[in-house]
Amino acid sequence: MGAFTGRDVLVEFAIADENVLPAGLAYKRLGMMRGKSMKTSWDTADTTADQSPQFTKTALVTFKSMEFSGDGVSYTDALYNQSEFKVNTISPGIATANQPKAWLRMTDPDGGKYEGPFIVTEWSDERPHADAATWSISATSNGAVVFTPA
């Protein structure tokens, strides 16, 4: 398939806690997005000791965390599902035990995708005087996030 642009990447969400089975989720598109980013980070434990090869540090990974961030242009149309996602972030309900939880799925044009449960850690609305109103989000993994290649 080759190169692609970020605008061709699909971001979807489902309001649910981390214990549900992903196959049963009803995902909705989070529309009118511009930037979309998924970051994987591993914590490490230092395993360096007096017999480490050539005095070189060694390590083991311990825990993985995933971070999603994105932004878009604010639209009031229900079609883009921005209000539903925003309400769940600002005033989460009983479906997620009053926590700002959601499953996120980010799919590339070739079919490769990230999918997993997240806690939305930040929602930001920007309302400049003479420019488009925008929003941005940040979310941190809250369970197993899986990447499935195409």
TrEMBL record:
<dbReference type="InterPro" id="IPR011855">
    <property type="entry name" value="Phgtail_TP901_1"/>
</dbReference>
<dbReference type="Pfam" id="PF06199">
    <property type="entry name" value="Phage_tail_2"/>
</dbReference>
<protein>
    <submittedName>
        <fullName>Phage tail protein</fullName>
    </submittedName>
</protein>
